[in-house]
Amino acid sequence: MAAQPERRFDDRIVSRTEAYLDRIDECVRLLSDLFDAYIDGGADDPTVRELVDAITARESDCDRLKRDISAQITNADAREIGLRNARIHLNSPRVLDLYQRLDEIPNAVERLAEELVTIKPPREAATFDRYAEMARCAERAMDALADAVACYVRLLRSPSRSDSIAAEIATVRGAESAVDESRNEVIETAFADDAIDRPFVFRTVALRFDEILDAMEDVTDTLVLISSTESWITTESNTRTTESND
Predict the structure, then answer these.
(1) Residue 108: burial class (beta carbons within 10 Å; 0-12, 13-18, 19+)
(2) Are 54 and 28 in contact, with CB atoms under 8 Å apart?
(3) Structure letter (DSSP) for residue 4
């Protein structure tokens, strides 16, 4: 059987990035399942432990994929990169920083999962409705963020193409603001109700959700920064740009 031809450098970067984003997305989506299982059975339910282990496994996959992508970009020689991939070459330090910031998302998800089963907040508390809402916000934000990053990476390999990720970035920012509001409501509720025991544990869970969305927004901020001098990608809507200049 004839040997398969080696995939081009840019094809490898795109395919590995897509795999990386898929693993991060899976990690984020497991949060909803985790909180549902926790409400049903508590911290000692075997399903809860299985879901925490699944999140940990995907976080490890993300670490591996990030290292692989970073090595591919760092170790590529001029022949591999070629003129076709000049955008990757010219932007390589900032691209590497982008992948590093993406890695903070599964890290934050893993911290939340581990702390949930460690501090064991009473699952009957009303704050769990807010946690479920925050998990859904995280899913929406991750969907948009994955689309934005994938679009950016595809444009890096296509010197004649341009596109906009302004809508996706706005979605992430909106979700982050919504989680900020939910975080504040959880903390206010936990400390205002004398019937709630150990209010600090509810505050901790809310802050861990906040870290996840903050990590996502950090990625969008990085996308805006590294694209600010580029004409081939739009990261801000015209309305936002006009308002910022007023």
Answers:
(1) buried
(2) no
(3) P
The structure tokens listed for 205 are 């869970």
**For residue 180, what pLDDT band results from cuts at 50, 70 and 90?**
very high
In DSSP terms, which residues pair with 164 in a beta bridge? 234
What does 184-208 look like in DSSP terms, one character per residue? HHHHHHHHH-TTSS-HHHHHHHHHH
Mean pLDDT computed over every residue of the chain = 87
User: How far is it, in rounded angstroms, from Cα 144 to Cα 140?
Assistant: 6
Confidence band of 229 (pLDDT split at 50, 70, 90) = confident
Q: What is the dihedral of CA 143, 145, 151, 155, to 10 degrees?
A: -170
What's the CA gap between 46 and 36, in Å, rounded?
A: 13
Cβ-contact 163, 87 below 8 angstroms: no
**Model confidence band, residue 11 (pLDDT cutoffs 50, 70, 90):** confident
What is the distance between the alpha carbons of residues 37 and 246, in angstroms, rounded to a whole number?
A: 49
Q: Under 8 Å CB-to-CB from 34, ≥6 apart: which residues?
A: 48, 51, 52, 55, 113, 116
Contacts of 191 (CB under 8 A, 6+ apart): 199, 203
pTM (global) more than 0.85: yes
* Rounded-to-integer distance, Cα 201 and Cα 187, Å: 10
The distance from CA 228 to its chain's CA centroid, rounded to whole angstroms, is 21
Tell me which residue has tokens 């990035």: 17
For 163, the 3-state DSSP assignment is strand
Report the DSSP beta bridge partners of residue 163.
Answer: 233
